[in-house]
Write a structure and sequence with these properties.
eight-stranded antiparallel β-sheet; 1% helix; 32 strands; six-stranded antiparallel β-sheet; mainly beta; 1 helix; single chain; 417 residues; globular
């Protein structure tokens, strides 16, 4: 029997002392398995709410957005004035968040490394396209220590934002933070937040001395800003004119589709990646796509891969989360991770209509331009290969397209020397 102390909650059963790798109900335990129990002091659990339509709850929230945008004032309501279901009495003129135009939360009551949140809002994108929201974690100095990219509802219908396919967004970082801020992740797009709720466990402080023999999480996240174009070979030039039609004196180099090499990653925050073969190319999410306008595309930057593409080496155990999309909403693209012996690692993911198993055991496929996340648990040190299988089949559909990697998060857990 387990007795849970007063004012505490039992969060779950874990494989490691840091309580990061959870046992599920299908795990068959052996006599040698260690089980760690995570208890949380409820008195340290904190919540923060935001409601654009109820200013009274928004104490401490700030924004740098200067313009507003119309979205529906409830889930399922459209803010699209061209829609036959549009009702101007059911819209809200919320802050329009764009690149570097933020909605900023109050400062937390104490530092934390984990926040759970739900965000309701709408995109200003036309058609059925999703937009991409950046959520950044700030330390006490106001510096960004970590970030994630979430996906807005499709079209202009107000709904819940998602991360890794889930409407309950879990933001975890190796570095403590005290505040979150929200902005648009793609230039030329925007969205508005109607409501937000978040919960976290504040660090109570204390003088506990870390165990020097305890394993430590080392986190690496794919950093698009670290991919310098001076290390890429231009794939051409954009034949652009200024908005008034005057030709530009200096054509803009085109790097969309440029081959990526290990040298591009070396010496940067992306040095945890190496190119081992296949086809690996850089797709520029800010590419110029209109011959008369300096305009960003509606897609985030990504790495497009085919075959045995990228290698990641683990010093200890941990996890690798790969967020991917296909090359189109009707195309199936495959994704897999295998160890040095060629064995596929089975991932966890949020099941939905855009993910499917294939006829190749251990190979999965996606059919969407939105982000789908697969988390692979690494149980032994070694080198693992991120790959695709273009011969994989789903029913009669081939997975012969390239796969787009939107984000990579590596957590390597080992004792520091």
């Amino acid at each position: 029997a387990i007795t849970v102390p007063e004012n505490s909650t039992l969060e779950g059963f874990y494989k490691d002392a840091d309580c990061t790798i959870k046992y599920d109900f299908t795990t068959v335990l052996a006599a040698t398995n260690d089980i760690y129990i995570k208890l949380v002091d409820a008195s340290l659990e904190k919540t923060i709410a935001y409601d654009f339509l109820n200013e009274a709850v928004n104490t401490g929230w700030t924004t740098t957005a200067s313009s507003t945008t119309s979205i529906g004032n409830a889930i399922g309501v459209t803010g699209d004035s061209s829609s036959p279901t549009y009702d101007p009495s059911k819209t809200a003129k919320v802050h329009k968040l764009e690149v570097e135009k933020y909605l900023i939360s109050p400062v937390f009551e104490g530092p934390t490394k984990d926040v759970t949140l739900e965000v309701i809002g709408g995109t200003t994108s036309s058609g059925n396209a999703s937009d991409f929201m950046k959520i950044e974690a700030l330390n006490e100095a106001g510096e960004v220590v970590d970030s994630i990219i979430a996906t807005t509802p499709t079209g202009k219908i107000t709904g819940k934002f998602t991360y890794n396919g889930s409407e309950v967004i879990k933001f975890s970082s190796n570095t403590a933070f005290v505040q979150l801020r929200f902005s648009c992740a793609v230039a030329g797009k925007g969205y508005g937040i109607l409501a937000c709720s978040m919960s976290y466990v504040a660090d109570a402080g204390g003088s506990e001395t870390p165990d020097p023999d305890a394993p430590v999480d080392h986190k690496n996240t794919l950093d698009w800003s670290a991919i310098a174009t001076d290390k890429l070979t231009a794939t051409g030039q954009y034949d652009l004119n200024a908005v008034d039609g005057t030709p530009l004196e200096t054509p803009i180099a085109k790097f969309d589709g440029a081959a990526l090499t290990t040298e591009v990653f070396a010496g940067t925050s992306n040095s945890f990646l190496s190119v081992v073969g296949g086809t690996v190319s850089y797709r520029d999410g800010q590419k110029f796509w209109d011959s008369n306008k300096n305009k960003a595309s509606s897609n985030p930057s990504c790495i497009e891969v085919k075959g045995d593409a990228l290698a990641v080496t683990f010093t200890g155990t941990g996890t690798l989360t790969i967020s991917v999309s296909s090359t189109g909403s009707t195309n199936w693209s495959s994704i897999a991770l295998k160890d040095a012996a060629g064995n596929y690692i089975t991932p966890t993911y949020t099941a939905n209509d855009n993910i499917s198993v294939t006829d190749k055991a251990g190979v999965y496929a996606v059919k969407t331009t939105g982000s789908q996340a697969f988390t692979f648990t690494i149980e032994a040190a070694g080198t693992y290969t991120i790959c695709t299988d273009t011969t994989a089949v789903i029913n009669t559909a081939n997975c012969n397209r390239a796969t787009r990697i939107l984000n990579l998060v590596k957590i390597d857990r080992y004792v520091e020397a």
